[in-house]
Amino acid sequence: MDCRVLSVQSHVVRGYVGNKSASFPLQVLGFEVDTINSVQFSNHTGYEHWKGQVLTADELHVLYEGIKLNNVNQYDYVLTGYTRDDSFLDMVVDIVQELKRANPNLVYVCDPVLGDNGAMYVPENLLPIYRCKVVPAADIITPNQFEAELLTGRNISSEKDAVEVMNLLHSMGPDTVVITSSDLPSPLGDQYLVALGSQKRVTADGTMVTQQIRMDIPRVDAVFVGTGDLFAAMLLAWTHLHPDNLKMACEKTVSVLCHVIKRTITYAKEVAGPNRRPSPAQLELRMVQSKADIEDPAIVVNAVVL
Amino acid sequence: MECRVLSIQSHVVRGYVGNKSASFPLQVLGFEVDSINSVQFSNHTGYSHWKGQVLTADELHVLYEGIKLNNVNHYDYVLTGYTRDTSFLEMVVDIVQELKRANPNLVYVCDPVLGDHGSMYVPQNLHPVYKNKVVPVADIITPNQFEAELLTGKNISTEKDAVEVMDLLHKMGPDTVVITSSDLPPRLGDRFLVSFGSQRILMPDGTRKTQRIRIEVPKVDAVFVGTGDLFAAMLLAWTHHYPTDLKTACEKTFSVMHHVIQRTISYAHGKITAKKFFYICVCMA
């Protein structure tokens, strides 16, 4: 497999978010991963302290120019996630558009990180950029419910709403949409959360079909950081390997997340000790230890085709 | 295995040098790798063009401070390689010393990158910093012949010289020394190059024993970048698994190198052949 990804995300010295969360799993699966680090921080911002430096839009451009001058600006995928700066995001879109001119088959996988649980945690001025520039250039997006509602201006109170919102998102650009989490009630009970997916594709005879799925995912009582980044990276990998089968791609992706999270919470509880809440440091994803699950995930969640 | 490495090396967007060369292999072997990127460049400096940004000694300190403030400045290994800046290198030594106070068993694996084939390719003022500050705190070093000669002030013309130089390097600090390449004549013929290793071990009865090895590796007719970084990382890994058996650790390390290089040269030749064919077609047209 000769598949090259350009991933533009954060770097943390310690732990697994951004490029640290995405690179190793993709490399384990055989992808060539070129990484532009949008920041370099000591650790993620859920710890008590964090320190480091950010990359400016100009510096991002300079790095891309280096790649371009050597005539190696050819990619099969671009992957982006959490960004805080509007000019940086604009520059990312410019780069994606240029890379798509160089390779029209390029797939842009975008996690449109805006917020969660009803509140934005990036500057408000990023919303119009995602809506008007980023999402239209994207091929696969992984919003949570809040982000899907923000991007479309529509509320999701039922599965029917979710399907309509995913169709609206398709009409904005991406052929593949996964709503990674929602507060819709699961048929399996309140120990589960509901995720949904939708993929538009053209069949052999030229007709357009849409496959929609729902997944009921076991909840875990802890805050994990970097799981969204791992999700987007693994969705990239598994849609690459199963391009016309969103059900299979999502089952593999979600299963990897389940294995990594289970290993992580088990370890965290062990090191924290009985009756103590694990710290952010202890809850860092057990990525390296999950190599076998990343390579060949046992399916532990089934997707229901709607 | 719960083993945490702090690796302070370059980052390139594309390709495999510095931290890009060291991280993935170590992670595949189950090590937790914390990486501080000393620079971020588009690619290594062997290409026609390269662009990017460097980290200052102060910025390095700031990143370390973040780790320290969270009380997670506990490492089993530190790994460093190519550096161009003396104040950066001095900050690295300060960090290593502090980490060793926190964990006296910490092993510092250092590739003392100074130059090759008779000339330096880092600023000259790094030489005294390596000699007087870095090598004395290192536990494992991977100099090439030129670097071993520079650090000790002794020439290597024979195997006996190599052994003496490695003993001198032991005296300076590190208990494990691997001279990663030399121009000494190989016994297997001129399609090979000769490397040496030396490891001082403390025996149960309190005496010191030194194991010395010679390895002859097949030469490959190409210039590879990042192989030294891969070597140091894999030597870290295999000495971790074979702490008192340098022979096995080196056999594993050099074998990894061989496999990666073979795969790389085969792939590259495939590409070159295709390109040559294209040029031939154009000329004929």
List keywords for this structure.
heterodimer, A: 306 residues, alpha/beta, two-stranded antiparallel ribbon, 9 helices, B: 285 residues, 11 strands, 23% strand, globular, PyrdxlKinase (chain B), acetylation (chain B), nucleotide-binding (chain B), Ribokinase-like (chain B), ATP binding (chain B)
For the sheet with most strands of chain B, the description reads: 9 strands, mixed
Low-confidence stretches of chain A: none
Radius of gyration of chain A: 19 Å
Question: Which strand order does the major sheet of chain A show?
Answer: 3-2-1-4-5-8-9-10-11-12
Number of H/I helices of chain B: 8
What is the average of the pLDDT values of chain B? 94
Spatial sequence of strands, sheet with the most strands of chain B: 3-2-1-4-5-8-9-10-11
Outline of the structure:
The complex is a heterodimer of chains A (306) and B (285). Chain A has helices at residues 18-28, 57-69, 86-102, 126-137, 145-152, 159-172, 227-241, 246-272, 291-295, and strands at residues 4-12, 32-41, 52-54, 77-80, 107-110, 115-116, 119-120, 140-141, 176-182, 192-202, 208-218, 303-305. Chain A is of the alpha/beta class.
Characterization of the model:
- The complex is a heterodimer of chains A (306) and B (285).
- Helices cover 40% and strands 22% of the residues of chain A.
- With 306 residues, chain A is an alpha/beta fold.
- In chain A, helix 1 (18-28) links the parallel strand 1 and strand 2.
- Chain A is globular and about 55 Å long.
- Chain B is α/β, with parallel strands linked by helices and 285 residues long.
- In chain B, 45% of the residues lie in helices and 23% in strands.
- Chain B has helices spanning 18-28, 57-69, 86-102, 126-137, 145-152, 159-172, 227-241, 246-284, and strands spanning 4-12, 32-41, 52-54, 77-80, 107-110, 115-116, 119-120, 140-141, 176-182, 192-202, 208-218.
- In chain B, helix 3 (86-102) runs parallel beside helix 4 and helix 5 (145-152) crosses helix 6.
- Classes of the chains: A alpha/beta (306), B alpha/beta (285).
